[in-house]
Amino acid sequence: MRKITWRTVVLAGLASIGLILPGCASGPFPFSQSWYADRANDPPGTRQIDSHGKLWPPVARPVGRKQTGLHAYHYAHYWPFPHNLDDRAYVENVFNIQAGSGWVTATTLHDYHFNPETQQLTDAGRSHLMWIAQSVPVQYRAVYIDQGLSRETDQLRVETSEEFYRDMNIPDPPVVLAVADDFQGRPAVEVDRIRQLELQSIPKPRLFYIGSATAGGTAGGGTPGGAGGATGGAGSTTTNSGNGR
Fold first, then answer.
1. pTM exceeding the 0.85 threshold for the entire prediction
2. pLDDT greater than 50 at residue 168
3. What is the number of structural domains in the chain?
4. Does residue 145 lie in a domain region?
5. Residue 51: strand, helix, or coil
6. What are the angstrom distances between the C-alpha of 163 and each of 19, 120, 121, 129, 192?
7. Which of 179, 194, 227 is a domain's end point?
8. Phi, psi angle pair for 26, to nearest 5°
């Protein structure tokens, strides 16, 4: 014989007087663990209702059944968890994407890293490849070759870079890939040229003297570099103590 529980009795009583809400008879028993679990994802806050031709409240709010009392207490007690953790994870993910894009830019070889005729690495290209293999963090350690005008040129540059790592006996060399990228900087030669032009445009310093504190100025009262004279004393800022006697 099937064991009759108090829940079965209560359900049968509610059904007999028509107090069971639609769908409850086929769903979990109200206020049971499975019933609470089924409503665990209900959004918090007040619900928006349509009454007398108006939305109450007039701002965006969840609709539908309200939260249970225990779930509302849980949100009020632990707020803003777990939502702040989701926001933090989103921001960290954005930062990681930006950091990854920055490392791609830093580890990309452009036209000036290769000889335009032979497509062999220049000194800057070889130094850059060594820096990538030895200094870049492992999770970002990859070589990207900026795509040129033809696939043959791109493939030759990739093979040149891979051959350089083989010749240098680099253990676990970085993978070399051809990507489409727009160069947003200046070659070092151009930067150096701009700096040299800046230094050449600086005017020579000029020193201006007002008066003179030299022996010639106190003796004759003349202008700097002159022999002094009758009118020279007016331009001197020094005072001859012997003139007052």
1. no
2. yes
3. 2
4. yes
5. strand
6. 81, 11, 10, 11, 30
7. 179
8. -95, -10
